[in-house]
Amino acid sequence: MLHNSGKADADEEKLIVRYEPFKEIVVLQKSWFAAPDDLARFASIIAGGKTTGLYWADGVVFLYFLLPTSSETAAKALVEEGRIYWTLVAYTFMDKYQPIIETKEKIMVPVVDLSSNDIIRKVANWLKQQKA
Predict the structure, then answer these.
(1) Parallel, antiparallel, or unpaired for β 108-113 and 24-27?
(2) Whose CA is closest to 115, among 66, 62, 63, 55?
(3) Domain ranges within the chain, ordered by starting residue
């Protein structure tokens, strides 16, 4: 930030921006669904009927639940080891991206294309290798 004197703020000059991706994602439980609308129905139910979204990359649509880093163990694993825990990953295969999945009950669930995210693509490819 520039002050009236025209000099940059000393704190801003010291700012370092660095990218440190997770080193490991540990999936504690996975659930495969036979069809995208089954997963959409599950997502709606688990969110208590509120709008929730799904993620899509490389032919896999899924959602995950992150173990909160409010616990000392999870926070330590994240900070010291770059490890996060997903308590549940629910997934199915959907060859082509579509922005909304509509169930027979007319539940509309948005789908976000995150195929540009390296981490999400790696998770999607790992899920493809899992037995349904």
Answers:
(1) unpaired
(2) 55
(3) 19-119
Q: Which residues pair with 32 in a beta bridge?
A: 91
Cα separation, 31 vs 46, in Å, equals 13
Count the neighbouring beta carbons within 10 Å of the beta carbon of residue 99.
9
Each residue's pLDDT tens digit, 14-68: 899 998 888 999 999 999 999 999 999 999 888 676 667 899 999 999 999 988 8
Mean pLDDT of the chain: 88
Q: What would the mean pLDDT of 87-106 be, rounded to a whole number?
A: 96
How many whole angstroms separate alpha carbon 71 and alpha carbon 31?
A: 25
- Asked if 62 and 90 count as a contact pair (C-beta separation under 8 A), the reply is yes
Closest CA to 60 of 29, 44, 87, 39: 39
Q: Which residues partner with 99 through β-bridges?
A: none
